[in-house]
Design brief:
Radius of gyration: 25 Å
Number of helices: 10
Structural class: mainly alpha
Strand content: under 5%
Distance between the termini: 76 Å
Largest sheet: none
Order of helices and strands: HHHHHHHHHH
Number of strands: 0
Length: 174
Amino acid sequence: MEGLLLAFYDIFEQLCAEKGITPTQAGRDNGIAQGVVSMWKKRGSTPNAQTLVKLADYFNTTPAYLMGNSMAKHPDTVRILEKLKDSKPFNKISDAESFRAGFLQFNSEKDRIVYFYQKLTDEGKIAAGAYFFQNLDKTTLSKVADQVMNLSENPLYQRTEDVPQPPTEDNSEG
């Protein structure tokens, strides 16, 4: 099968497997009758343009990829390849664009967060922290607070300059 272009249904079936669903379920999710999905498989027919675009959106790919006309699986890959084609030599794409296109990969979400977090300015780190706090539930937020507190007791992580004191009834503004 090496070097052979895949037919629409083969690619459709592969995308379903990657998503952990059956082709019938993908059809249902997109308002496509089971009989139509069967025709794609048995007769080698292909969806109309409107359905093809709907499926491409569903699988976060391109219609050209679904039809076997492109090796670029993700829309961001197509955009980046176009950008590179039209760019001057040595015009670099960002690491975020590389990740979105699948060129840059991480072992875990934690690794991805750490990688991009260290690229942020202080203002960016504050903005990221604010986003974390807005999206953590109370239990997780409490665990994070405990971990930060424990780290603050470790001399390796302690600041040497004076740090602000927490507000108390004695020194809070009233």
